[in-house]
Amino acid sequence: MSAAGAWSVPTGSDIIGFDSADAMMLLTAASGLANALVHAGDVSLAIKVATAYLRMSVDLGGSPISALTHVTTPARAFSGVCLTDAIPICVEGESLSIPARLIRSITATRRRSGWRSPSTATIELVDASIYRHVELKTPRLSVLTVLGCQNVDMATAGVTVCGHSVREIGELRDRLEVVLERHQQAFLKTVGAATFDSFFRRAA
Hints:
- With 204 residues, the protein is an alpha+beta fold.
- The protein folds into two domains: 7-57 and 167-202, no CATH class; 69-165, no CATH class.
- Helices cover 28% and strands 37% of the residues.
- The chain has helices at 23-39, 43-54, 169-191, 193-197, and strands at residues 7-11, 14-17, 58-59, 69-72, 77-82, 86-91, 94-99, 103-110, 119-125, 130-136, 140-145, 148-153, 160-163, 165-166, 201-202.
- The strands form three sheets. It has a ten-stranded antiparallel beta sheet with strand order 7-6-10-9-8-13-4-5-11-12. A three-stranded antiparallel beta sheet has the order 2-1-15, covered by helices on one side.
- A hairpin with a 4-residue loop joins strand 9 and strand 10.
- Helix 1 (23-39) packs antiparallel against helix 2, helix 1 (23-39) runs parallel beside helix 3 (169-191) and helix 2 (43-54) runs antiparallel to helix 3 (169-191).
């Protein structure tokens, strides 16, 4: 494993070393890289990134579902990374597209009674704003888990997708450093240097 501070996370115009980055920065970068790997066609490599933190103890913080999410359905309960970039909705006659990085939680509120019946949900954003009786234009979410990609049908009442964080920031830093050291070349080969550097960089 590299020494502390050997890796950094670009955030806007700043470069933040691992020793200064908070859980939200690290989870956002790791999830972004995992998503990029999935889109590049290497799900197994994406799982190696996600596994670094999916099994850690979670903190019910205000993280978006794009960073770390916990899914509960009638038959499943698991943590993962939401791969759906945005969720198109209609609320009070207005059509909106909400980026997953702004969503704190989604709770399905009505079961679809027929193929023409819309799926509805309550959506809470990271700024604590709430949208109720929202019609989901695309009620299926894709989530990366330790078992691979799974689909979540938000048309079933009671299904919840909630953003989480992790409790031990030191452990998160260590785990991500190990993954980056072990698989850096594979990451670069799969997504390219420009994409990889948009999530993680070597500190000077």
